[in-house]
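Below: protein 1.
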Amino acid sequence: MQRMSDAPYIEVRGLSKIFGSDPASVLPMLGQQLTKREVLERTGHAVGLRDINLHIKRGEIFVIMGLSGSGKSTLIRHFNRLIEPSAGDIRVEGRNVMELGEAELREFRRRSMAMVFQHFGLLPHKTVLDNVGFGLKTQGVAVGERNAEAKRWLTDVGLAGYEDQYPAQLSGGQQQRVGLARALCTNADILLMDEAFSALDPLIRSDMQEQLMQLQQRLQKTIVFITHDLDEALRLGDRVAILRDGELVQVGEPQEILLNPADDYVAAFVQNVNRARALTVGHVMKPADSHLSAFTIGEVLAHMQRCKQDFAFVVDDEQFRGALRRETLERAKANAARDQDYVEEFYEDIEALSPDALLEEAIPATLTADYPLPVVDGKGRMRGLLSRSSLARIL
């Protein structure tokens, strides 16, 4: 994931939406802890959103998810005011979107936010090239410049050579690539993606997810991504927000959602997730408290005795040097005429794990190891330990 500022880029403050003939009369009921069904039965009004408060950082993929009817699509349509709120506001860099006049709102939609829809939203009578360049056309960009930009983005999404085709001539996955290229072509800082990959078959969907992550590494857009698929949310999201009946239940990084669900609803939501594919070694490793910088057999054996362990890890100048086993050192000491000065020749042939590796990649090595495996980063520094028992507990 890319680095991002911790300062709020988008803020949602006290956002509520009531659907019905007289929303203002129903708003006070939201503070009475009535359920969505109870409000509907008493008033004939539907609660779309209830007092949503959240912030989104610049450059992150922020995923909003929930079951059908949870309010996620209603929420994202407030960002560019396709839906007007009953209460609350949304601010982008401190600017209240709800206070924009008609002309300002049009300009905001053209230049600051772009949207990718579930069912593509392409213009069937226009070519692929014209579809991708449509946003630039509404901005008044000259035809030569917008066509050049459109071609560049088509190349980036793998559709070079399709410029003169029409949407009906493309597969679903190709149409969604056109929709993504169209959104990116406007150079908007914020992308709103409403169930953008839900209409695609699983293989194409996975490919689109991978392409989005690759593009994000380079572009660092602020992406608000709506999905009902938890696996998709955990794969894409820097942070994930879970909605239920228009209420915000939990916001957190994917591993927080999986390991520390806020309530029984979230726990039930995540219980069937393949954690081995969603969590990394770095998410579940334990601190490496037992490493040492001693270099003689006697010193290492003494350390093992104090720690009541049959293994030890040697770290020198913050660099992981190797793993040692008590049995090996005791045999070496018994056979040696004197205490060995160095232990390098007794290092075990052990597989060090990367903190970025998925748990499923670490399972084989962990199952065959007699002791926890060291977690070592790309600079050779020891970051923690992953044991078979901690892996089993997480999974």
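Below: protein 2.
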Amino acid sequence: MDDRNLSVIVVPHGDLETRSFSVSYRKLKVLTITGGLLGLLICFVVASWFPVMLLAARVPGLKKQLIELEGERAKVAELARDLAEVEAQYDNIRKLLGADAPAAGSPPMLPPLRDSTKTDGTAPISTAPDLRRWPLNQRGFVTQNAGVGARGHPGIDIAVKNDSDVRAAGSGTIKSAGLDDVYGKYIVIDHGQGYMSVYGHANRLLVQPGDRVAAGDKIALSGSTGRSTAPHLHFEIRKDGAVMDPFSYVRQPK
């Protein structure tokens, strides 16, 4: 046992009287150890709770972001519903007005379709000579796909604003270009090996029959001529007179 004491003498400034304090070495060791343990405990608690405190500080900001995201999601859902409704109304109007349907007693001036019309896309892309380019500079919105059967829709309709650039889907020769009661201002490109592409409802034609074009060449400006209810491009691909599914050849950009 260590019975020694530690004495501390305090001499106040300008005062002759002194004060002394005495503590045993044993108590001093106990106080030192206790203080050290208490300090370690405090450091451990602070280190443990510090990440929690940081997360707690972020909670108000996260709640605000969550509220904003919920609002944006609600707006997106509302826009999706509005778009679906507009698309359905547009499709109904097209059906009522007979958009892209042959007018009675006024057959199209384009090359006739075979009765064995098919849109199953069985022809591989590689068989078409250089026929892979999307016919517009932009994605557009496909309002109608190619139908099945001789009375089905013979191509796809892509909604775009007036005077958008119409591009050749592949290289070839302009077989015909003119005005039709149904297709409006149209262009037919002969790509060889029995393949042709058709572009309808243009506002302005930029090529003439006999012109040679390469894939991606600007051939027309989109519009709403002929039997059409809104600005769009009617696009077809034919093989030996049979309608093919354009999406078996071209790819709509993302």
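DSSP finds one helix and twelve strands in the chain.
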